[in-house]
Amino acid sequence: MTVLKGVGPRNAERLAAIGVETVQDVLFHLPSRYQDRTRVTPIGALRHGDQAVVVGTVEAADIRYGRRRSLLLRLADGSGILTLRFFHFSAAQRSGLVRGTRLLCFGEVRSGPTGLEMVHPEYRPVAEGEAPPLEQSLTPIYPTTEGMHQLSWRTISGRALELLRQQPGRLPEWLPPELRRSYRLPELAEALLFLHRPPPDAPREELLEGRHPAQRRLAFEELLAHQLSLRALRRRQRRAGAPALVGDGRLRRRLLQRLPFQLTGAQQRVTAEIGADLRQERPMMRLVQGDVGSGKTVVAALAALQALEADHQVALMAPTELLAEQHLNSFRRWLEPLGLEVGWLTGRHKGRAREQELQRLASGELRLVVGTHALFQQDVVFQALGLVIIDEQHRFGVHQRMALREKGRTAGATPHQLIMTATPIPRTLAMTAYADLDLSVIDQLPPGRTPVTTVAIPDSRREQVVERVRAACAAGRQAYWVCTLVEESEALQCQAAEETARELTGALPQQRVGLVHGRMKGAEKEAVMAAFESGQLDLLVATTVIEVGVDVPNASLMIIENPERLGLAQLHQLRGRVGRGRVESHCVLMYHPPLTGNAQERLAVMRETTDGFLIARRDLELRGPGEVLGTRQTGEMQFRIADVMRDQPLLEPVQRAAQELLDGHPERVRPLVRRWIGRRERYIDA
Ligand code: ADP
Ligand code: MG
Which one of 120, 146, 604, 610 has the largest count of C-beta atoms within 10 Å of its C-beta? Predict the structure, then answer.
């Protein structure tokens, strides 16, 4: 870093704090906007809000003693008059700003009490007859960091650009000319020189929006590097051996015969895709996306049966105990009649019971186990684990994926992995974020579902809503009442649910009201859920623990309190708990006014559609990809230059370019990836 003149140890430290450690980092730290100091604007042509250079003569200089002492200068250039206002000024400064002085000023113009003015402009005197010193290029304004001034940034980037001109080899061009031509991308060095010092006539609007070809070039390269790194990861992982789980179909056939329904076309297609993967001797890594209620569980069960037919073990993991338990019940209902035992392992299992379960997994006596993260604790050893199924994975960064894979690995062989999610993600984004996975989409709901009707009602009409619950329950249907609170305070959320349950028990004496929340003991929760499922409870008051997976088809009414606190994805998941049976279902979003604009939009989206993909697209627009993919904390989908939303049109071309580069210039792949991701991301280099 200190190869750049002017970067002393102090600045080097400040730069390092924001990850700027090399000359290349400096070059990739792009200006966020520009000022035009390349020409003089006549004062008469200034408008409020402009940032401009003016040259004029001081006609009057007065000190005003108003609310604040200020120095006011009147600057004239023959086309108009501008006031310069200073609140802080030294005696020396003041004596330099006398009548008759010719000044060059740069600043933002605003309308003041006596016409247009600039407050604290940058200025310098210009001698009579001297040409005003102007810049040769637009002035870059850098996203700055604590203690680093724009001037330092400009100096540092200037030095880095100089170095780039003198030694272009420091930053090689890795995109081959034919690729640059076909995607119309300027050269790297050219793009950087342009963006750090655009010529006076550069399109500032386009630059501000990040749509200039020079910016596109850099975003393209960054996305390409990301894509290539995930593909490399994928290739490495495919090289590991896995058991070929061929299976003879005997268990699968028996399950299909016993099911009370036919698989949808989409379920059949995805089951076939998984089946083909499992027969390979390299580990499957497949992500199945399917909207809530699309029937992912039975697809998972069929995959599990294929592994069992091939004499391997299967572990099914769910993110919460409640959800794991639902799976346990489904699997037991479906598989026990086939003579298969389903094991059960969660964090609650301790002592002897746990020991015993572990021992049976290690010996191979137990072939199939359902549970939570407890399944992947260190002392859990399988005799022949062939398939890991992970359901409803929400937080889903590449690091989490890698960690899970590591845990599933036993004695040299990597089990096949199936991941299921109800978070539908637009295809191009999925291909960008999950390039290390194969994708299957269950894009069809089972027949006979009636879309949920959704209304938004202010909480001032709570009594009406309670009445609605009473009517539904009296008609033999069941309802959820969901209490939400900010996620951080689970305790408060549980408390609110308890109060609501008490209140509703009082208000609905004829109805049987149950309560489930995250702080209850597992056995208690189980008992309540079982009672609701079997129809012994009419109304279930719950926190957002029921967000995913809970499946009670007779429940046809859902009240969500304070829906404005939740994101679209979460609302969609919650609402997915109803509309699972044949009766028409309703969802009431009982909000607390006033709503912010963003909240209004979210509730409007919920009223207008039940299409998970549409909702996901709107969610992306409203919250951005980091939130939607659950990777915001890891910073994974946050790029230095690219912006997945803004640069969506690049995502497809980047896929193609990645393949072209791999085919035509494989030797360029590694240095390209290193340039963008190398030092920071563990998964690049493993
Ligand atoms: P999700 O994809 O949200 O996990 P589930 O697997 O819980 O969905 O399935 C939702 C409900 O639909 C369950 O009651 C399940 O038994 C039922 N189901 C699944 N597939 C079909 C189908 N092809 N026809 C009818 N019902 C189905
Ligand atoms: Mg599910």
Answer: 610
Domain check: are 14 and 85 in the same one? no
- Give pLDDT tens digits for 216-243: 999 999 999 999 998 888 888 888 889 9
| Domain CATH code at residue 324 | 3.40.50.300
Structure tokens at 197: 């010092």
Q: Domain for residue 230, yes or no?
A: no
CB-CB contact of 229 with 222 (8 Å):
no
Residues 437 and 292 in one domain: yes
Ligand 1 and 290: CB distance under 6 A? yes
pTM here? Answer: 0.76
Which of 261, 288, 444, when mutated, tests ligand 1's pocket best, judged by the most ligand atoms within 8 Å of its CB? 261
- Cα 128 to middle of ligand 2, angstroms: 79
**pLDDT tens, 74-86?**
999 999 999 999 9
Type and span of the H or E element at 617: helix 612-623
- 499, part of any domain: yes
Whether residues 343 and 382 share a domain: the answer is yes
Cα torsion 427, 433, 435, 440: sign? negative
Q: How far apart are CA 570 and CA 573, in angstroms?
A: 5
Helix-helix angle 265-278:296-309, to 10 degrees: 30
What is the position in ligand 1's atom list of the atom closest to the CA of 263? 23
The pair of three-digit structure tokens given for residue 259, joined into one six-digit string: 């099911």
Ligand approaching nearest to the C-alpha of 576: 1
Residue 276's closest CA among 245, 253, 299? 245
Residues 360 and 480 in one domain: no
Q: What CA–CA distance (Å, rounded) separates 631 from 556?
A: 33
**Are 359 and 480 members of one domain?**
no
51-65 and 69-76: which strand pairing?
Answer: antiparallel
- Could you list the residue range(s) of the whole structural domain that residue 570 is in? 452-609
Beta strand spans in 434-565 (E) = 438-442, 453-458, 478-482, 513-516, 539-542, 555-561
Cβ atoms within 10 A of the Cβ of 317, count?
26
pLDDT tens column, 6-27? 677 777 777 777 777 888 889 9
CATH number of the domain bearing residue 83: 2.40.50.140
Residues 168 and 102 in one domain: no
Question: Within 13 A of 104's CA, how many CA atoms are on the CB side?
Answer: 17
Q: In this structure, is residue 588 part of a structural domain?
A: yes
Atom from ligand 1 closest to the CA of residue 300: 6
Which pair of structure tokens corresponds to residue 256? Answer: 């299909």
Last residue of a domain, one of 575, 609, 643: 609
Q: Report the number of distinct structural domains present in the chain.
A: 4
> How remote is the CA of residue 553 from the centroid of ligand 2, in Å?
13
Instruction: Report whether residue 424 contacts ligand 1, using a CB cutoff of 6 Å.
Output: no
For residues 158 and 14, state if they share a domain: yes
Report which secondary-structure segment, H or E, holds 290.
strand 285-290
Q: Does residue 421 share a domain with residue 457?
A: no
Domain end among 609, 627, 645 = 609
Residue 651 belongs to some domain of the structure? no
Average pLDDT, the chain: 87
Q: How far is the CA of 104 from the centre of ligand 1 (A)?
A: 73
Q: Rounded CA gap, 436 and 459, in Å?
A: 46
